[in-house]
């Protein structure tokens, strides 16, 4: 491979802001695997956000990218999987599997799409110093004949359209809106763009915690919600605390600590078979590897209000944010019924939208 921009390349990132900023290019924020694709003739390399190759996990995309991308180019985008008209991150994570036979089975069963939103090189020209508005025009031109599963991300410079996307596209599983300054060069690894994400709050039960990697202080709180059958399901974690607060939480939660966790709702968390019928903490996965998943069981008596962006199935998609303790709420009142459901919006309508507006 001999391209003007060679792998690995760290993608340009975004900083969170509270509102959609004016005077920029706007795109939907895709909820998938960020990927930078290098193509030089028949050779295709798909690099992850960390620079590690994803190529072997998406063989169907390698073929599609050869068919749809220019012969020599570097393209920034997102790998996604659609299911029942919306993005499905859990099915996407299943593709990171060590067995090639399993990868190819899933490639046939749940094929992935690639959504392109930036162009870093074309032919012999590096475009990192080229303003975004010009890179966008070149991307649309270069991928004008692209066919599914390769798509150009819809983009607009109309803030009113961006606000409409922000409301509508969540129903298709998208994550918010990204705003990019029109004169922005491509800055690998820098947080030079802006993202606006949905934020909601929920009251959850604190039913355990994990220790921090630095020692005997709280690393993350384990959060639960009661389902329709009255079972407490593990829905995610709350983890961003200053070190002093981590120390305080150990003492604060000590009265709830169970000497014997056998009666805890999540006592079977270390039994891999138990996770088939319930969402419990402690299940090993290809993501956790040898990571210590042990946790301290707490009597599920305290209620916490957290902020979250959106759900992935029956759990929080990302780490929840601590807001406040809720002594006025009972644990039994913390159910899935309190969660706001976005109005559904078919993902095909997003992908079929105009590449620019």
Automatic annotation (TrEMBL):
Domain of life: Bacteria
Coiled-coil portions: none
Pfam families referenced in this protein's UniProt entry, alphabetically: DNA_ligase_A_C, DNA_ligase_A_M
Listed InterPro entries: Adenylation_LigC-like, ATP-dep_DNA_ligase, DNA_ligase_ATP-dep_C, DNA_ligase_ATP-dep_cent, DNA_ligase_ATP-dep_CS, NA-bd_OB-fold, OBF_LigC-like
SUPFAM superfamilies: DNA ligase/mRNA capping enzyme, catalytic domain (SSF56091), Nucleic acid-binding proteins (SSF50249)
Domain ATP-dependent DNA ligase family profile residues, every copy: 114-227
Protein's UniProt keywords contain Transmembrane: no
Region (Disordered): 267-288
Keyword Ligase on entry: yes
Keywords: Ligase
A biological-process GO annotation: DNA recombination
Reactions performed catalytically: ATP + (deoxyribonucleotide)n-3'-hydroxyl + 5'-phospho-(deoxyribonucleotide)m = (deoxyribonucleotide)n+m + AMP + diphosphate
EC number from the UniProt entry: 6.5.1.1
GO function terms (MF aspect): ATP binding; DNA ligase (ATP) activity
CDD domains: Adenylation_DNA_ligase_LigC, OBF_DNA_ligase_LigC
Family indicated by similarity: Belongs to the ATP-dependent DNA ligase family.
Protein name: DNA ligase (ATP)
Lineage: Bacteria, Bacillati, Actinomycetota, Actinomycetes, Kitasatosporales
């Amino acid at each position: 491979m001999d391209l003007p921009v060679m792998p690995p390349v760290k993608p340009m990132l975004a900083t969170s802001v509270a509102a959609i900023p004016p005077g920029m290019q706007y795109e939907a924020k895709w909820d998938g695997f960020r990927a930078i694709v290098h193509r030089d003739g028949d050779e295709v390399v798909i690099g992850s956000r960390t620079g590690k190759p994803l190529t072997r996990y998406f063989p169907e995309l390698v073929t599609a990218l050869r068919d749809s991308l220019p012969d020599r180019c570097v393209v920034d985008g997102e790998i996604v999987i659609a299911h029942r008209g919306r993005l499905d991150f859990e099915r996407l994570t299943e593709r990171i599997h060590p067995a090639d036979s399993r990868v190819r089975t899933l490639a046939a069963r749940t094929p992935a799409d690639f959504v392109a939103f930036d162009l870093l090189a074309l032919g012999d020209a590096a475009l990192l110093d080229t303003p975004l508005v010009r890179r966008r025009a070149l991307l649309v031109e270069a991928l004008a004949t692209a066919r599914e599963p390769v798509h150009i991300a819809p983009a607009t410079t109309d803030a009113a359209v961006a606000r409409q996307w922000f409301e509508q596209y969540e129903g298709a599983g998208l994550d918010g809106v990204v705003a990019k300054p029109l004169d922005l060069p491509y800055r690998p690894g820098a947080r030079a763009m802006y993202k606006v994400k949905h934020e909601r709050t929920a009251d959850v039960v604190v039913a355990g915690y994990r220790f921090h990697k630095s020692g005997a202080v709280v690393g993350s709180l384990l959060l639960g919600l009661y389902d329709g059958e009255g079972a407490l399901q593990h829905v995610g974690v709350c983890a961003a605390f200053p070190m002093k607060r981590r120390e305080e939480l150990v003492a604060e939660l000590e009265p709830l600590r169970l000497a014997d966790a056998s009666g805890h709702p999540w006592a079977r968390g270390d039994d891999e078979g138990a996770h088939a019928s319930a969402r419990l903490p402690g299940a090993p996965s290809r993501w956790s590897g040898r990571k210590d998943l042990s946790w301290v069981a707490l009597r599920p008596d305290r209620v916490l209000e957290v902020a979250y962006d959106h759900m992935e199935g029956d759990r929080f998609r990302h780490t929840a944010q601590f807001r406040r303790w809720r002594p006025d709420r009972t644990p039994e009142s913390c159910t899935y019924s309190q969660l706001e459901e976005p109005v559904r919006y078919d993902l095909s309508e997003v992908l079929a939208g105009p590449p620019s507006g």
